[in-house]
Every structure is written in structure tokens, then in C-alpha cells.
Amino acid sequence: MQKEYSLRRARVANELKRSAGLVFAGNADAHLESSWRPHAHFEYLTGITNESGAVLLLDPAHSVASRREILLLPARDPEKEQWDGLRQSIGSALRNETGFATIMRTSALPMLLKDVASRVKRFSTLMPTAGVGEEISKDLAIWNDVCLRTPGCEILDSTNTIPTLRSVKSQIEIAVIQEAVDMTASGFARAMRFVTPGVNEYKVQATLEHEYAMAGGRGSAFPPIVGGGLNSTVLHYKENDQDLVEGDLVCIDSGAFHSGYGADISRTIPVSGKFTKRQKEIYEIVLRAEEASIRAVKPGVTLSELDAVARKIITKAGFGDYFIHSIGHHLGLETHDTCGPIGPLKKGAVITIEPGIYLPEEAIGVRIEDDIAVTEKGYKNLSRAIPKSVSAIEEAMRGQ
Questions:
Q1: Would you identify the CATH topology of the domain 2-166?
Q2: Does domain 171-397 have CATH number 3.40.930.10?
Q3: How far apart are the C-alpha atoms of 37 and 26, rounded to whole Å?
Q4: SS3 content of the chain, % helix, strand, coil (to 5)
Q5: DSSP for 186-228?
Q6: Other CB atoms closer than 10 Å to residue 267's CB: what's the count?
Q7: Using one digit for the tens of pLDDT, what is the confidence trace for 126-166?
Q8: Per the confidence metrics, is the pTM higher than 0.85?
Q9: Where are the chain's structural domains?
Q10: Which of these, 75, 9, 19, 88, lies nearest to 46 by C-alpha position?
Q11: Helix 390-397 and helix 171-194: axis angle, to 10°?
Q12: Residue pLDDT, tens place only, 302-311
């Protein structure tokens, strides 16, 4: 993977040209160290996930090749390491492991910035732009500070550079996402056999997550949604604490986490193992909309156009007001992956397609979601192995 990360950094450096940029891993909360993940931009460019406080300096105009990308790590703290785990000293082993020829401590950053300012006087912001009322991004704050001390410098907006690169997945990334989807398929297969009246939603969640782990995953990509009955109509239902009731539907939205990437799949199944006539009616409308939208996926189409395909079918069936969210999102290092300005999809994009109809007055919520990779001429449904038709779901629930 070192070659992959190096290529990504080279692409960013090519966009920066003669300006410098900073990417921050972010800092872990002392009480949440074990669950900490770096900022996705940092992980995308380095693959490093265990160095809270780390910084990447990109300086492509430097005359010395080994100084064009520098990894900066916080100083070692023996007491902290006893609590949170050992860290390596800076040396050849760490350089070989990370693929960085130059690694320094973060205490060297002021000196490095002074050197950059003396040479290029052009700085690019790479971290996401803060919203109104929020604290400005750390790189913009630093470049502002540098410019106060450096006459004639300028700050360039490059905040879309990394998201745009992230919007097109490499073959390696798609393969990892496929593995996460396959792990998710194992979880859904087990959950479909497990669901029965009287089972608590949380036990369904536990079944999913147990299967993810046994298949090689590292937990869930996001907190699973397991909503039965009225809870199936709540898009981001999170309690998962009610017993499933005979005659209800249960909407399951979940995905395994694997090597930094996650799946995101939704299936809606009958608690009793068989859809009622009304449930089947609603379900098959959503299914037609989802499958039509998937068939429309190809390079050049937009998510808005895919949304319109599904929405037209649902609206024609009389349920347009009950499709209350958009068709989907990019998928990658983040479940809702940060992928730059909304525009036409390119080959290599991975998206979700997830229409739904939600009828609280009937306690019927149906969402069907698949993970789709955009190919040269169309698409590949990464989650096609997970039962989706009415008959396939009923068979899966019978263990067939």
C-alpha cells in the first residue's frame, strides 16, 4: 500500500505546484483514544491511523527531493504510551514502514514553516473549510499566522483537491470496499435467519456485528440501525432497544468496517418471515425505484439525475411525499464520503443507491440500499449477493 499512498501524495503535490500545504491527523480525546481515527484526508495520504497529532507537510517546490514531503509526529511520552500503547522511535524502521524519507517531530514545524515562507510565499489550504461560526481550519489559521510575518505571501484555496481525488477510488480501494460488503453480506444472511417475533432490535445488531468480526471485519462502519414497526420509519433511528413484533417490518441499515473502509447496506424484512399484501406493495415500489436508479448509473450521470429516476417511480405510485431523503451518497473512508463539488460521476466512484418510503401512520418504513461502483460503461453492484427481492428475502429468512 505504500506505493498507493505515495501516488496519492504525488497527485496532491502536482496540484499544489509551487505552493505548500498541510494536512492534519487531528487529536484524540484522552478518554476516547482506543476509538480514535485520524482525519480521512490524513489517512488517505499516509495510511497512518495510530498517530494522534501528526502532521503532513507537502512542499513540492523544495530543491531537495527528500524534503518535499515531511511527516511530523508528536514527541514520545513513556507515561502516555504505557496507557495507550507503544510508539516507534524515528529511525530507518519507521521510515520503511511509513514510506517517508523524512520524519521529524511536530516541534520542528515552526522552523519548517519559516523555511517554506522564505522560499515560496504561496500556501494552499487543504483541510475542509469551516462553516460560519465554527473555528477556522487549522491549516488556514497557520497560514494566516505565517502571512502576518511574511510580506508578499498569498493563501490559495485548494480545499477541493483531496476530496476530488477521493471521489475516484483506485482498484485497491474498490477491492477493500468489496471485502467490507462481503462481510456485511455474512451479517445480513445471519440476521435474516435470526429475526423472529420477540427478538430485541439490539440482539439483531449484535448478530450483525458478531458476523462482521468473524468474517474479518473490525466492527461496524457506523452504528447499525435496526428499526422494527414504527421505528422503521425513523431514518436515523439509534436506540435499537425494542422487541420485534409479529406482522411488522424491520429496516436494517448497517455495514462492516474493514481496513479503513466501510459498507453501507439497507434491507427491509418482515418480522414474521413473510410480507403482508400491503408491505409487499410498498416494498416492490421501492425496489422498482432502486433497480431503475441502479440501471441508470454510468460515468457522466449525477446523483441528482439518479434521484430523479427513483423519485419519478415513487411519485407516480402516489408516495412522492414519503420519499423524504436523497437517493444516496459517495462511500469510502467515510460512510458519507467527502468527495468535493457535486458533479457528474466518474469511473471509479463508489456510491449508495437507497430510495425509501416511510409511512408512520401505518408503521411501515421501507428502505433498500446497495453499494454501487461506477465502471467504464456502467456500474457494478457490489452488494448484489445480499437477498433483495420479496421471494429471496423470504427464502433467506427460512434459511434456504
A1: Creatine Amidinohydrolase; Chain A, domain 1 (3.40.350)
A2: no
A3: 9
A4: 40, 20, 40
A5: HHHHHHHHH--TT-BHHHHHHHHHHHHHHTT--SBSS--EEEE
A6: 23
A7: 999 988 888 899 999 999 999 999 899 999 999 999 999 99
A8: yes
A9: 2-166, 171-397
A10: 9
A11: 60
A12: 999 999 999 9
